[in-house]
Amino acid sequence: MRTTNRGSTFLLLSLTVVLTAVLALGAGACSSGRHVIVDRVQPPTIPTGANDVVLRVDTRGGFTPVEYQLGIVPGLTVYGDGRVIESGPVTEQYPPHALPNLVTGRLSRDAIGRLVQLAADAELLGPAIDFGRPGVTDMATTEVTINASTCSDRAACPAPTPQHAYALEFPPVHGDPGLSTAQLAARRRLRSWVAAVDRAATRAATEPYVASEVAVYARPADTVAAGVDGIEPGAADWPLGDLATIGTPIGGTGANTTYRCAVVRGSDAERVLAAAAGASSITRWRAAGAEYSIVFRPLLPNEHTCP
Fold it and tell me: d(Cα 37, Cα 101) in Å, to the nearest integer?
């Protein structure tokens, strides 16, 4: 009597049906002009360290005085642990406060991943992009840093390339004869991504950021008695001793030296921040019988030297 392996026969018939259906589906997809996706793009890898910069938008330059440039803090930074630090709202007053208004909060890992994926979709993760140069002068340049990679082996990939766009906030209404169609499209993609990151950061950053380290730029005060436009600068006592030899010179040597910069930390930073809280950008600081002008630059978590 012949025996039959009914289980094996059933399995063989089932596989035949499935294979026939898959082949039919593939044929239908090809005949309709559609493509069957058989592989997925490598998702971006993102740093996770508390002091690892994942995203940063920094706008500087243009026709502004040196003291303004020294005090600039990147407008928005997102770290690997989700911490966000960005510039908060300021009042339109003169003189402005001595300290910038920085706020902080946290983004979830999923939220950071979505922002990085948006950057990948906007083709911002590759080599430096040619954004062109609009026909305007004395505008600032926006630098965008995105520390993420779509390579399967991150260690073997080149370092992420910061993107630089001059006059990014100057969108030509009817095009610009100095910009190509590709450059105009690239600028639109970058502006859209920066706006998305800014919206996410603004929702998250609701608490004041208190720096544990502060860069102090000091120079002898101007000899003119009155302040700008007749506004008296006011005076305050420097809490940490002499300013004549603080830190190291920047901007040249000898007679060309303008500012000296030092980084204060710990309890010294707390004393400096407390003193500067009630000061303005033109306050004159008294130290060892002399008066000085000071620019305060709170340092971010990944910064430990004079920027």
Answer: 49
Pairing mode, strands 207-208 and 102-106: antiparallel
Q: Are strands 141-146 and 248-250 parallel, antiparallel or unpaired?
A: unpaired
pTM for the structure as a whole? 0.79
Show the tokens assigned to 173.
């209404």
> Residues 262, 247: contact at Cβ < 8 Å?
yes
pLDDT for 81-121, tens place per residue?
999 999 998 887 888 999 999 999 999 999 999 999 999 99
Domain chopping of the chain, boundaries: 53-208, 213-298
Furthest-apart CA atoms within the chain: distance in Å: 119
In the predicted structure, residue 43 carries a pLDDT above the cut 70? no
At 205, the amino acid letter reads A
Dihedral (CA of 19, 22, 24, 26) sign: negative
Cα–Cα dist 25/37, whole Å:
13
Half-sphere exposure of 32 (CA within 13 A, CB side): 9
Sheet with 76-79, side-by-side order of all strands: 163-166, 141-146, 53-60, 76-79, 83-87, 102-106, 207-208
Cβ atoms within 10 Å of 251's Cβ, excluding its own: 14
Sheet holding 259-265, edge to edge: 235-237, 284-287, 290-298, 213-220, 259-265, 248-250
Which residue has tokens 């009042």? 91
**Cβ atoms of residues 133 and 178 within 8 Å:** yes
* CATH topology assigned to domain 53-208: Mago nashi protein (3.30.1560)
Pair 191, 221: CB distance under 8 Å: no
